[in-house]
Amino acid sequence: MSAATRARLLRPGDVVGVCAPGGPVDPDRLARGLAAVRALGLEPKLAPHAGDRHLFLAGTTAARAEDLATLLADPEVKALWCARGGSGASQVLERIGVSFVRRHAKPLIGYSDATVLHALWQRAGVPSIHGPMVAVELARGDADLPSLRHALFGEGTPYATAPGELRTLLPGRARGRLRAGCLTLLAAVAGTRWAVPRDPEGTVLVLEDVDEPPYKIDRLLWQLRASGALRGVRGVVFGCLEGCLPRPDAGYTIEDVLREALAPLGVPVALGLRSGHVPEGVPHVALPLGVPARLDVRPDSARLELGRNLLAAPPRGRR
């Protein structure tokens, strides 16, 4: 049985491990987020070092890696949920490793700095979810509940963008497996052994970031192209890119920058997906990674549709 088929959907009453693999967590926000996890019908289990602080991190590298390993190996825990992003998750990759994630095969939920953990999970063949974090969106009530409940429990139908949600940058049509991540983090691991591996079926790639000026966005996209990280990408969807706009008097738009940077790929590109770093008050969409995806970008409209959830149904009568 593969790791992908052993990783299972959650069901009410399941225990989920809450960890902080990157930046330190605000206690009040964490408390509100844990209450929101319970409101979903799940029981959060806080990692032992989730409240630690070390420099700009939620504890030392050893402590954060120990938390991930402990939750993965805990038979009571059915999934791992990141409390927040920040920085530092890349430091734990070598201490966890592909085989350990594959052996325990539990889905991971998070975004931002968790991008590098999603790459690790992908290398292990274990599905994960680019979704809202416990002490951020869940704490402030900003999770898009239909997409989150489908990603976690398999309820409802796979996510598709609403009319007018996405804006056209470069038209075209694409099919492939869905991948997503923070642009800064994907560029940081490009060319390393932790780079996101190519999917033989092709990729529809969601790229998001926050508070990066347009010249840095251009540089990061150039780095992904030059490193070969975008080989096999058949379509690109950008997030909201909050804080990434040029000055009003700049004479160009962020759309101009994205078109010029990605036009050489010859693939459809859209902008505006509500996933990753989104403005406060905007419902954050959960994306099950690795699912089939279809991107249809026309001159006057754009639509992203996801396919069936890869997580298996939980066995009846068992936790």
Short description:
By secondary structure, the protein is α/β, with parallel strands linked by helices.
Question: How would you characterize the overall build of this protein?
Answer:
This protein has helices spanning about 5, 25-40, 60-75, 95, 100-105, 115-125, 135-140, 145-155, 185-190, 215-225, 255-260; strands at about 15-20, 45, 75-80, 110, 130, 165-170, 170-180, 205-210, 235-240, 270, 285-290, 290-300, 300-305. It is α/β, with parallel strands linked by helices. Strands 6-10-9-8-7-12-13 form a seven-stranded mixed β-sheet. A six-stranded mixed β-sheet has the order 2-1-3-4-5-11, sandwiched between helices. The longest helix has 14 residues, at about 215-225.
Record keyword descriptors for this entry.
globular; single chain; alpha/beta; 30% helix; 20% strand; 11 helices; 319 residues; 13 strands
* Topology order in helix (H) and strand (E) letters: HEHEHEHHEHEHHEEHEHEHEEEE
Cα separation of the termini: 19 Å
Oligomerization status of the protein chains: single chain
Task: Tell me roughly what share of residues is in helical segments.
Answer: 25-40%
Structural class: alpha/beta
Unreliable residue stretches:
none
Q: Major sheet: size, sense and barrel closure?
A: 7 strands, mixed
Shape label: globular
Question: Could you tell me the radius of gyration in angstroms?
Answer: 18 Å
Give the overall pLDDT as a whole number: 95
Strand order of the largest sheet: 6-10-9-8-7-12-13
Total count of strands: 13
Number of helices: 11
Proportion in β-strands: 15-25%
